[in-house]
Amino acid sequence: MPLFSVTENQPVASAVWRMVLQGDVPALRAGSFVEVAVPGCYLRRPFSVSTASAGTFSIIYKIVGKGTDLMTHFAPGQSVDVLVGLGNGFDAARAHGRALIVGGGLGVAPLCQLAKDLHALRVPTTFVGGFNTAADIFCEEEFRILCDESLVYTLDGSAGRKGLVTACFDELDFDYFFACGPLPMLKAVAAATPKPGQLSLEARMGCGYGVCMGCSIETNRGPMRVCKEGPVFEKEVLPW
Amino acid sequence: MVDLSVNLCGVKLQNPIIPASGTFGFGAEMAEYYDLNVLGSISVKGTTLHPRFGNPTPRIAESEGGLLNAVGLQNPGADHVVAEELPALRRRFRQPVIGNICGFSADEYRECCRRVAPHVDLIELNISCPNVHEGGMAFGTSCEGAAGVVSAVRSVCDKPLIVKLSPNVTDIVSIARACEDAGADGLTLINTLLGMRIDIRRRTPILANTTGGLSGPAVFPVALRMIYQVRRACHLPIVGCGGVQNAEQVIEMMMAGATAVQVGSENLRNPFACKEIVEQLPEIMNELKINKLTDIIGITE
Q1: Which fold has domain A3-86?
Q2: Contact between chains at A216 and B53 (C-beta distance less than 8 A)
Q3: What angle do CA A177, A181, A183 make, to 5 degrees?
Q4: Does this model's pTM top 0.90?
């Protein structure tokens, strides 16, 4: 099995941790995901790639149950069995004009590498991140550096603007968007703009490589698997 | 040099390892991980006459030593399977292929089998899917239901006919006998055990379907016991299935009475599972002084 070595594993926000792994791996695509084997759990845990370069990548994960709790105990130097390069990822090259990247909660994680890719492609980019509260915010500094404009919303108003990420859509000038976050946020984003874009979906998965049909969704082009045809889908493919 | 080959209902398999239906698709995704030709056979995704999207999600819930699934037989339908999936599998896989078919009436089973059978080497009749609300397991939980479907399919099936039985019954032996009397050539033991999980924070079932089928290491002893019981009461060759994780358990299942062994859930956590088990087999056979796998089928009294 593909083994990686933990180089960092630390909290970056309330119950949110960042793990950096290294191993024999090419630079993973933004928006693709990996599956971490957690000793003591039967199934692997899927996580989007947050940042990646040749030989290393990071994931950002929230403690939501037994598996992610066990992962906080992975120590630097420890070997971890990870399947990498799963799913299709974001296609940054499809952005044209000005780009908007929108993240909600943990959905901000895969946008880090995307912001780097857009920056490298010299695409003018605005980042909008939505969190429940100030303690949930992570990677704010990275987006401020990489993007031309960076806005943060919290539901309770404890940091940045108060409200939902879609509140600023009218004041923003963009031609293409990328979004990742909870399903209600993704639906709201898709409904709030007529512009084209790509949305990354989350799903409870069995395998993560397309054989169990656990994460299927109905799309405008028939049934698709979040783990295989996704997790990133073009807006016009999604039936909402 | 140990001999791994077995004869399943007249079809020679180079080894007894078969990915179980529903855990391997039609092979295309797994072929990205390894050359499938190391396998004995493949039991492809359960196929119905018409395309099915299956159940709403979540369809997967983890459990101690396994998982519950309520996929609900998502598949592109018999015609698409015959036109696209099976030819694609045949191009990359030169070993025998098992078609797995399911239906919602005896007529539907028969028509599905009529279309699929010419394109596969064996038919596995799924009368035990716990995740569809009509058909599926309903046929597999009574002797009359099981015999009815087997008889209906038998007349249009010129390939060896294996019936995959449900463990969610009081007496699996009587159902196995009913299948034998109705003309089955073999049995797969067992499909998943009906189970359930609740999200205690939301106070709702984790699975959108409420219940699902339990599989994985947790069910191995149940499968083993049923194989053992059926082997002693019925003459049909048995394909063991349920919670197998390694070559030792393959040997154990064969000693209980299995002629071949399917590996299911393990494919969902380790895409190399079947390949690794095939590779482990000679070593464990040497250790146990087994020269031919066929020598140990049902050897445990």
Answers
A1: Elongation Factor Tu (Ef-tu); domain 3 (2.40.30)
A2: yes
A3: 105
A4: yes
